[in-house]
Design brief:
With about 70 residues, the protein is an all-alpha fold. The protein has 4 helices and no strands.
Length: about 70
Amino acid sequence: MNSKKYVRAFCNSEDIKYEDVVRILSGKTNKNYTYQSLQGKLTRNTFTYEEACILADALGYDLIPVKRK
């Protein structure tokens, strides 16, 4: 699963939009995220694990590696 699917899953489960993700990431990292820059990162698959962890934490999730069975 690529980063776009993860972010989309977070958005669907929490009923938020990409604009909310932009606001969360901008607030937590003090970097200037825009809707276009987020879309670009997701399209190019350059959304980092660190960004995913920040988003997950802000939404009350933990990203935990689990060994497959």
